[in-house]
Amino acid sequence: xxxxxxxxxxxxxxxxxxxxxxxxxxxxxxxxxxxxxxxxxxxxxxxxxxxxxxxxxxxxxxxxxxxxxxxxxxxxxxxxxxxxxxxxxxxxxxxxxxxxxxxxxxxxxxxxxxxxxxxxxxxxxxxxxxxxxxxxxxxxxxxxxxxxxxxxxxxxxxxxxxxxxxxxxxxxxxxxxxxxxxxxxxxxxxxxxxxxxxxxxxxxxxxxxxxxxxxxxxxxxxxxxxxxxxxxxxxxxxxxxxxxxxxxxxxxxxxxxxxxxxxxxxxxxxxxxxxxxxxxxxxxxxxxxxxxxxxxxxxxxxxxxxxxxxxxxxxxxxxxxxxxxxxxxxxxxxxxxxxxxxxxxxxxxxxxxxxxxxxxxxxxxxxxxxxxxxxxxxxxxxxxxxxxxxxxxxxxxxxxxxxxxxxxxxxxxxxxxxxxxxxxxxxxxxxxxxxxxxxxx
Length: 441
What we know:
By secondary structure, the protein is α+β, with helices and mostly antiparallel strands.
């Protein structure tokens, strides 16, 4: 102690410099201290929340909760697994050992739940650790005097939330009572049956319309830019006008082909009768026989092509082979032209044979009908479509799982603002207040 006192008395300048350094360091450190509402405490708890819309509690427990529990129980660092299954939601609380590294165990839990096979309707499990920093530090209420609840939700979702999310220090903005409206489509089963459609086919077509298709590249202002074909729906009117491909009716095509085959059989019978009655020469008989054989072969090929085309058009829109459809349509068109030529040649031979038979020939030309090309091939070459609004009633409705909030008797929306890990709570709150002041009318 004497040495320190003696040193201070003998070196006053050094002591003054040290005092200045300590003072400046304290001031700088004080200015960099974060102002928090709660101390930074991380509890050894990890939650796993999974949504399963439309499922009852017992179904949620058996299909979602139990498979996740089995995957979590054997992980190192896990002490207890608690679960709660309610309608539409599965909640699992994983309690860890006190000396466990929360971040490492959380990563292992995330990897484990990703490997679990969940039902198609279940959402992706949300894994979160518990800390005071994850709770909102600022709560707000937005209410309206004249706007409806729907207009208020649109303002919050489209204007206020994006503006607050961009404020420095804001990690996320949660809302209560601002769930957007849902598009509800009620399909008419009779209309679906009328257009040979099923609900699955319509849903697959809607999913296919919601994808972007690359078309290549284009040079714009000297730069090569990718070009994509997209289907954009921005309103209910656009959705109602969306065109749904109508598959061909296979029974109608088969009926037409059946009629054609019947007509062909009738023609064969009439030609045979005519040959017996008229007694044509062997040359005419041979020519007619060859024509009939060729015509039957063409009819068989046409029948097979029609069947293949109908089967291809019955497939979902995203599974159809457009190249195969084009080939089949071209094949059908060529076969129909060949059929028409053979039918014309057969009619000419029949007229030639009947011309020399007097009364017998006079009675037969009107009855010897030859099969005409079926119209189903021509109809299938042009893809028919129907508007989605014709098949279903489309309207906007408030979501079933949304909440209705009111403040002083007026529609309102609750906002919760969470800060980022390294942000200053007070500075962030002031920045949010400034941003709201700019948004105020």
